[in-house]
Amino acid sequence: MSYIGMVVDASYPNDIRVRKEAESLVDSGKKVVVICPHKKGDAKTETINGVAVFRIGNNYSNAKKGLHDIFESAFNINLLFFFGIKKAMKTYAIKYLHIHDLPLAGTGYKFKSKVKKLILDMHENYPEALKTWFLWKTNPIIKLKNFIFMNPKLWSYKEKRYCKKYDAVICVVEEMKEKLIANFNINPNKLVVVSNFEKKEFAANFLNSVAQNIIKPTDFSITYVGGFGPHRGLDIAIKAMPEIVNKIPNATLFLIGKGSANVEQKLKEITRDENVENNVRFVGYRPFNEVSTIMQESTINIIPHKSNGHTDNTIPHKLFQIMMSKSLLLVSSCKPLKRIVEKYDAGIVFKADDVHDFANKVIMIHEAGDALNSKKENAFDAVIHKGENWETESLKLHSLYTAN
User: Fold this and answer.
1) CB-based contact 324:206 (threshold 8 Å)
2) How far is it, in rounded angstroms, from Cα 345 to Cα 340?
3) Cα–Cα distance measured from residue 308 to residue 352, given in angstroms and rounded to the nearest whole number
4) Are residues 250 and 132 part of one domain?
5) pLDDT tens column, 291-339
């Protein structure tokens, strides 16, 4: 039986989107091999939940990735993945090639004549993401490298080129599909939206609380879970804390997760500048079973993303995880977040990038008390009963392979 070859420049099974797609295709009767970099301690090959994993190279590091990124940017080919895919094709009968995200699009296209169908899976608006990911970098050499090789105009050209050349393009939200049609005149028939919904079974994570020493019952807790970056809007939340604490003295902002050294330094500088070090806690990573309890026991869970070409064309998995937790959700007015939350009356929306409106919405939530509980139920119902889940969404992914 032939294979679907999924190619991703990330660890597997750590990449949530790739894992859900691969396992879903296997559950539907397809054979899938994920081609990804080998990191120290990883097996070269293994099978995880029915998915074959074929790891390439040796002891992949951030430094090695950086060098391959520069070469790919200049020559439209990543040599590690080019030779890795060739090797995988000798081992597995790969009939379909499913390339994850724009940086590997040039490399994947080299194999178009070797496969029946070539699919590009766009996790985000990559050119726009480049405008925001590196805003807080301070090293001048890295800044120069990013300006030359990670230039948004260059990658926008690549995006247009490969979206036209690939047989099918997967978008993560409707907004991304509309952007590709409007900006590049991409044929709508080749665009399929497969969003970052969660499996309904994920709700089981919230059935049993575990011990956690982060949130206390006396806290008015405003909790963020996820990666830190300039586009995440965490600086907006921190800058709002003086206004919030003035009205809610026991309010604490909990930041669960981590970012690069530059990002964390910037956020801690803002915390000191705002004189809210006693009201902002940098928690770091926590085990997910503990994080699920933290989500549930928090007064508010926030997704304060700034609104830009990147965040308006993607959506985080944690939106749907929070909706399953039956905890109150506060999101920024980024287009996909606002669309889903308002469609189901599943939380509160504040104006993105607006410190004062973030503070006002938090204070309003405090004053409203239990009057907002219906929004928690609406959020849960949207995921479990109204189709905002992976079981429904994955059918669109399967349709790309029905001819197998």
Assistant:
1) yes
2) 8
3) 9
4) no
5) 999 999 999 999 999 999 888 999 999 999 999 999 999 999 999 999 9
* Amino acid letter, residue 32: V
What is the DSSP code (8-state) at residue 257?
A: B
d(CA 89, CA 253): 49
Place of tokens 């070797």: 114
Cβ proximity of 302 and 237 under 8 Å: yes
Contact 349, 338 (CB under 8 A): yes
Strand (E) or helix (H) holding 293: helix 288-297
Residue 134 identity? F
List pLDDT tens digits, range 98-151.
Answer: 999 999 999 999 999 999 999 999 998 888 888 886 665 666 666 666 656 678
Shared domain for 126 and 154, answered yes or no, is yes
Residue 404, in any domain of the structure: no
What distances in angstroms separate CA 342 from CA 46, 111, 167, 196, 372, one per listed residue? 43, 43, 34, 18, 14
DSSP-derived letter for residue 197 is: P
pTM across the whole model: 0.91
Round to whole Å and give the CA distance between 57 and 43.
Answer: 12
169: exposed, middle or buried (Cβ count in 10 Å: 0-12, 13-18, 19+) = buried
Separate counts of helices (H) and strands (E) for the chain: 16, 14
Give the domain CATH number at 222.
3.40.50.2000
Query: Averaged over 160-180, what is the pLDDT?
Result: 96
Instruction: Tally Cβ neighbours within 10 Å of residue 214.
Output: 19
What is the tally of structural domains in the chain? 2
